[in-house]
Fold this protein.
Amino acid sequence: MKKERAVITVNGADHPGIVAAITKILADMGINIEDLSQTVVQDLFTMIVIVDLRGADMIELQDKLNKAGAKQGVQITVQHEDIFKYMHRV
Amino acid sequence: MLFSTEEILETIRMITTEHLDIRTVTLGINLQGCASDDVDVVSKRIHDKITSVAGRLVPEADSIESKYGIPIVNKRVAVTPIATLLDSIADDATHAGIKIAKSLDSAAKSVGIDFIGGYSALVHKGFTRGSTALLNSIPKALTETETVCSSVNVASTKSGINMDAVVKMGEIIKSASPKPINCAKLVTFANAPPDNPFMAGAFHGAGEPESVINVGISGPGVIRAVVEQAENVDLGTLAENIKRTAFKIARVGELVGREMASRLGVKFGIIDLSLAPTPTKGDSVANILEAMGLERCGAHGSTAALALLTDAVKKGGAMASSYVGGLSGAFIPVSEDVGMAEAVAEGAINLDKLEAMSSVCSVGLDMVVVPKDTPAETISAIIADECAIGVVNNKVTGVRIIPTGKEGDYVEFGGLLGGSPVLSVRRFSSAKFVRRGGRIPAPIQSLTG
């Protein structure tokens, strides 16, 4: 199956459990993490996760992550990788 | 990582804090096959065709919006200029025009769009029976519908300026103006592009395919942020920075346009590289010029600053897309751009300066409010001036002018149309000049090839 990547971006105040909450949703949906980077600058947590959707429903993923984001008090966006490819790669 | 953290965060910042969006995805639909001598048949065919071709426009746009996390603000439809359908009507074609306008309105509402363009006529060289009927019906058609937008092309570089049409448009604008919003839905053009995705001037012009997706990008807020960051660079470097950002903005338009066209099974037309402001604070073309170093938009130097901006946006955008078209410039609508409206209120900009600025960007005098008692001939003369700029410089110019209130009043239209103070017009008469009528010949530069 052709790779279908999405970029998940998480922003918010740092506290325990953010990574766990997000990776649990990905694992439950059978979505593989291809790359992950995380920084904390002045208590502001930023994480970028690149995943391979492989047939997983993006709308369902967005729904679940939005709910988790609200619970964790962080902003989560899920975008298909093509928007970054188009903007930043020629 | 596939993308650097900076790249990903830059895209997200553009969308969330700098108001980057796709301003419009416009589906052009050919209605020529709907012709009949019976207006009821035409109206039904039009309704059926639009609802079947555009039925999936809104849901597919919404789905693309969430796939890429980029807002698609407007979804719209542009149709074949309706004057061509009125040519074949057997009975009273003016009355038929209003019936067709209502059919367009009803089709637009049933596919869930806020505007449909194409209640239009191309009369730059003269009138047909259908175009005369269409022009006569415009005030009533706009008054009795909500979503229908109208445009009339009265001049072109190849044919000159049809002053009979210009005179007529002054009268039409006056008679449509008791309901001021009518005038916000009516554009008078020189060199109207056949593939412009922006309302109110969108129509599905000659030479276009059966159905087509045209995309209007946005991004004044993004460009303003770039200009603000480049505080201490010279203007050549500034132009370079704008170009790079315009490239990125246009790429998003290209992505969305191609996917939209493929999902609807229609041709991908063009990306319109216009910077389209909104009344949202910061999403303003005027504020970009101010970030370049002008105390207020309208100060001396504004025309030069706008020329730099428009050119840099075009150069960056042209590299980003295989097909560029439409208006492709910077919009300077007064009421829709909060920075522009503020500049008018402070006396920094007037009609004369706006006219000068329109010579270096597309669109012309847009959403300009003038006193209600402005004579029709003065409005025609304003249109003629704007047409002259377009015709001589081989570019698009348009006039969207709203005669309402009195000088010093502030008029609010609401939503994306915004609000504006009433500008002053010259009190000296142009009546005798415009009433001569006839056609101002095409300029010598039309003789190419």
Observations:
- Chain A touches chain B at residues 5, 7, 9, 34-35, 37, 39, 46, 48, 50, 58-59, 62, 77-84, 86-88 (CB under 8 Å).
- Residues 2 and 57 of chain A are 15 Å apart (CA to CA).
- DSSP finds three helices and four strands in chain A.
- Residues 58-72 of chain A form the longest helix (15 residues).
